[in-house]
Amino acid sequence: MSGKAWVFGEAVNTDVMAPGLYFKSSMEEMATHCMEALDPAFAKRVQPGDVVVAGESFGVGSAREQAALAFKHHQVAAILAPSFGRIFYRNALNFGVPVLRFPAYAEVQAGDELSVDPIAGSVINHTQNKHYLVDPIPDYLMDMVNAGGLMPWLKQRLAAGEIV
Questions:
Q1: Element containing residue 52 per DSSP (H, E)
Q2: How far apart are CA 73 and CA 32, in angstroms?
Q3: Interval 115-134: pLDDT, tens
Q4: pLDDT tens digits, one per residue of 75-117
Q5: What is the spatial distance between Cα 82 and Cα 55, in angstroms, rounded to a whole number?
Q6: Residue 65 contacts by C-beta under 8 Å, 6 or more apart in sequence?
Q7: pTM for the full model?
Q8: What is the DSSP letter of 138?
């Protein structure tokens, strides 16, 4: 997974990721407003494979699943932060968005080119020529992420007769 870094601060609330004003709209419409209160250009310019990097407590606030879905809609490759709101963290994984605890977030600058390997627990900042090791996402969770999230993973396992 490689892409440009989008850098945000601490305690980014799920209300900023999925503004409540757009809850009655489609996910496509809501995603066009993702992070606009912090960076109005984000939803217009983020590219598939880009990486979101943020400070402590990314995803605090309400338990809205649309927050994680907005990043999935934009095909964000991974989200890196030293800590996450608990429900956001699980929602992101459940929708197939890798989230990694990344203590060195303050060293990354907006626009840096990053490569993330969530299985190896590796983050490479190609712009700054730095390599970081982080706790990897366990294989069983990466199987779910790679399947597209919890529901597609369950459907695959049901179809294969692995669960009843």
A1: strand 51-53
A2: 9
A3: 999 999 999 999 999 999 99
A4: 999 999 999 999 999 999 999 999 999 999 999 999 999 999 9
A5: 6
A6: 91, 94, 95
A7: 0.93
A8: P
Length of the chain: 164
Token duo for residue 51: 């990486």
- Give the SS3 label for residue 39: coil
Q: Domains of the chain by range and CATH? A: 2-136 (3.20.19.10)
For residue 98, how many C-alpha atoms fall within 13 Å in the half-sphere facing its CB?
30
Distance separating the N- and C-terminal Cα atoms of the chain = 34
Which SS3 state, helix, strand or coil, does residue 92 take? helix
Pairing mode, strands 99-101 and 51-53: unpaired
pLDDT value at position 64? 87
**Could you tell me the CA-to-CA distances from 126 to 106, 129, 135 in Å, in that order?**
16, 5, 20
Who's near 47: CB < 8 A, 6+ residues apart?
Answer: 3, 4, 75
Confidence of residue 69 (pLDDT cuts 50, 70, 90): very high
